[in-house]
Amino acid sequence: MAKRVALLPGDGIGPDVVASAVRVLRQVFSDRPEALSFQYHLLGGSAIDETGQPFPEETRAAVLASDAVLLGAVGGPKWDKGPGHLRPEAGLLALRKTLGVYANMRPVRAYERLLDASPLRLDVAKGVDLLIIRELTGGIYFGERERGDTALEGRFAKDTMYYTEMEIRRVVKKGFEAARDRKGHLTSVDKANVLDSSRLWREVVDDMKKDFPDVTVEHVLVDSCAMHLVTRPERFDVIVTENLFGDILSDEAAVLTGSIGVLPSASLGDGPGLYEPIHGSAPDIAGKGIANPLGTILSAAMMLRHSLAEPERAERMEAAVARVIDAGLRTADLARGQASVSTNAMTDAVIAAL
Amino acid sequence: MAKRVALLPGDGIGPDVVASAVRVLRQVFSDRPEALSFQYHLLGGSAIDETGQPFPEETRAAVLASDAVLLGAVGGPKWDKGPGHLRPEAGLLALRKTLGVYANMRPVRAYERLLDASPLRLDVAKGVDLLIIRELTGGIYFGERERGDTALEGRFAKDTMYYTEMEIRRVVKKGFEAARDRKGHLTSVDKANVLDSSRLWREVVDDMKKDFPDVTVEHVLVDSCAMHLVTRPERFDVIVTENLFGDILSDEAAVLTGSIGVLPSASLGDGPGLYEPIHGSAPDIAGKGIANPLGTILSAAMMLRHSLAEPERAERMEAAVARVIDAGLRTADLARGQASVSTNAMTDAVIAAL
Ligand SMILES: CC(C)[C@H](C(=O)O)[C@@H](O)C(=O)O
Ligand SMILES: CC(C)[C@H](C(=O)O)[C@@H](O)C(=O)O
Fold first, then answer.
1. For residues A214 and B75, what is the distance between their CA atoms, to the nearest angstrom?
2. Residue A149 CB neighbours (<10 A)
3. What DSSP string runs through B186-218?
4. Is A95 in contact with A101 (CB distance < 8 Å)?
5. In 10 A of CB A64, how many CB atoms?
6. Atom of ligand 1 nearest to the CA of A136
7. Which alpha helices (DSSP H) does chain B contain, by range?
8. What is d(CA B103, CA B244) in angstroms, rounded to the nearest whole number?
9. CA separation for the pair B352, B68 (Å, rounded)
10. Is the Cβ atom of B129 under 6 angstroms away from ligand 2?
């Protein structure tokens, strides 16, 4: 039986990079072409244009029936003016919630050959090898909201950061497990000196320690973490945190090594996983054929490992990407004024390196 | 009539650095010693030890009757185990709320001679010259909280991010005014693609643009801002944002230039202002006489400018600090293994440079 991969190219450069990843996947499975089947579906701005909805019912049904979902990117200035629930981002949030992918895993590591594009000093950047696990389906992203008028202070608006023990426990568990498979150190990030939800978060983490005696755990405040990511990033192994803190910190972490175009992500729950590069839809270079496909190719590799039980093929893809980077090949985003290659040429090189 | 300065040394290195700032202030006013009067009061852990409360009633009355408040730092492991409302941080939050200091101003700039302590590449760090204005008395720091039990998912905890139009308007106004006095560019940071409070924030900013035609305004999402602070910090002039985002971003910004020990802050409202260095209480070096007093001295300079109508004396203090830095004098935090001087020697040097 073929494994069903739902492809959601989305907007901007999304279609380019998803097409690249599909080409690489087909090559990796050239000995068993029947093992994977691909179906394209609409999400984000392009879905709004065609159906009026950022996350059409057809897409919802398809992703729920799939084994894994590979996403390009969503959003663009064209759709920025619509009401909140008709923006591309609303489609992305609904997709995450529908799939129940509560754990967003973002590995960030220094590729030695790319470090000259890092804003950090070489000696600071070179030690970066961390994994941020961001809670993705709870917190202030999905809490109650309210708007209205006050008697004396004009309008008001309210958002709610809400977490249950179950929600915290399941994502923190992913953190402990990942730490055990890596360097054995887990950093839980919160704002427990101010927030009740953070105090509950901290209690749950402390509760779980006894089940993972081989993992060392530390609690770090989100403001401290934002500092240490820049000053001493090598001190982190696995970071686990709630949705909003994870949004901010994972983007901060993504730029440390100069390789944001290369970074993948996996969002995991109990059903199909969702895989997407860290970079955005980059509408300014959409359709020019110069987008960096490596983040999406590495996301597809994570998909093989986490959703499709194909760890060896995942490793082959990752090794091929490392080889083309080592060989000095660069798309425009990484070229820093040097010669650069197209999306297609980069994809061809990865396929050749497999 | 003497201007009344309430001194809150606090915990850890707080007493050392406040004593230094007082020595410098006395010197700056040596021609008019009667112009300032100083009173010491308890706050934080030391207040808990003496009175059982982190923000004793005596301190509350005194700060409200003062012209300005100079704070060292609060907190330390000794008081970390107490219940939330009996922690040093609770005293700090109550102090801010009591004074109504809704606008926390944190200038961050590169001192050329300190850039070798920056984690950033020299070419990235050297352009940093920005001011973060953080809303300080609203948002999720002061919203309703709740804890309880759910039927199916264990315990829950809830925090509320709440803003009124009035609260947003008054701090954003400080942002526009500051931008007008600097390079004329205001960056408003929010998460308007997710949060209702951010959408209201953005509306208020857009509303106010017409009153400041000489200021250019851009909206940046908090996750993007966390990236750009590291990759292109020189693009920012004044940043204005809500309390929690400001907590995270201002700490991130504080480490960019390698000079966190030198950075001051001013928290302004309609009554007495609150002035404190950015660095924490550093319990590990408390009492050793090696803390960096420059952040507190520069905070005292901001106090002269913003609360005591003494801009010329403020400039003299700032110029003196710049001179000792240029002369190569370093406390241990900035020495990077080179020779370093004590808190007192650094203070003497500033006084000599006045
Ligand atoms: C588009 C936006 C809603 C989204 C988020 O904040 O989760 C994005 O920033 C991300 O991190 O994937
Ligand atoms: C101690 C803590 C409550 C405080 C805050 O978050 O406001 C601190 O981090 C700060 O930024 O002054």
1. 31
2. 10
3. EEEEE-TTT-HHHHHHHHHHHHHGGG-TTSEEE
4. no
5. 14
6. 7
7. 14-28, 45-51, 57-64, 88-99, 122-125, 165-181, 196-208, 222-231, 243-254, 294-306, 311-326, 332-335, 343-353
8. 13
9. 26
10. no
Beta bridge partners of B133: B105, B240
Share in percent of chain A as helix, strand, coil (round to 5): 50, 20, 30
In one-letter notation, the amino acid at residue A337 is G
Instruction: Identify the nearest ligand to the CA of A224 by its number.
Output: 2
Ligand at minimal distance from the CA of B80 is 2
B234: tokens are 């020189």
Comparing CB atoms, the residue among A164, A226, A260 nearest residue B248 is A226
Subunit contact A159:B249, Cβ cutoff 8 A: no
Size of interface A-B (CB pairs under 8 A): 177
Interface test mutation site (partner B, options A223, A235, A265, max chain B beta carbons within 10 A): A223
Residue of chain A with shortest Cα separation from B125: A119
Predicted TM-score (pTM) of the model is: 0.96
Q: What is the separation, in whole angstroms, between the first and last Cα of chain A?
A: 25
Task: Tell how far CA B326 is from the center of its chain.
Answer: 24
Tell me if domain B1-113+259-354 and domain B129-255 are identical in fold: yes
Phi, psi at A61, each rounded to 5°: -60, -40
Instruction: Please report, for residues A230, A319, B218, the alpha-carbon distance to residue A314 in angstroms, rounded to integers and kept in the order given.
Output: 30, 9, 42
Ligand 1 centroid distance, CA of B168 (Å) = 24
Q: Domain B129-255 adopts which CATH fold?
A: Isopropylmalate Dehydrogenase (3.40.718)
Give, for all 354 residues of chain B, the pLDDT tens digit. 899 999 999 999 999 999 999 999 999 999 999 999 999 999 999 999 999 999 999 999 999 999 999 999 999 999 988 777 888 999 999 999 999 999 999 999 999 999 988 999 999 999 999 999 999 999 999 999 999 999 999 999 999 999 999 999 999 999 999 999 999 999 999 999 999 999 999 999 999 999 999 999 999 999 999 999 999 999 999 999 999 999 999 999 999 998 899 999 999 999 999 999 999 999 999 999 999 999 999 999 999 999 999 999 999 999 999 999 999 999 999 888 889 999 999 999 999 999
Chain centroid, CA A144 distance in Å: 25
* Yes or no: domain B1-113+259-354 corresponds to CATH 3.40.718.10: yes
DSSP string, A262-325: G-EEEEE-SS-EEEEESS---GGGTTTT----HHHHHHHHHHHHHTSS-HHHHHHHHHHHHHHH
Sheet holding B155-164, edge to edge: A145-149, A155-164, B155-164, B145-149
Q: Is A104 exposed, middle or buried (0-12, 13-18, 19+ CB in 10 A)?
A: buried
Tokens of A32: 């068993």
Q: Where are the domains of chain A?
A: 1-104+256-354, 129-255
- A153: chain B residues, CB-CB within 8 Å: 164-167
Give me the phi and psi of A347, to 5 degrees please.
Answer: -65, -45
**Other beta carbons less than 10 A from residue B150's beta carbon:** 12
Largest CA distance in chain A: 71
Our answer on whether the CB atom of B92 is closer than 6 Å to any ligand 2 atom is yes
Q: Which CATH architecture has domain A1-104+256-354?
A: 3-Layer(aba) Sandwich (3.40)
DSSP state of A184: S
Cα A158 versus chain centre, distance: 27
Instruction: Report whether B64 contacts B98 (CB < 8 A).
Output: yes
- CA-based nearest residue in chain A for residue B93: A194
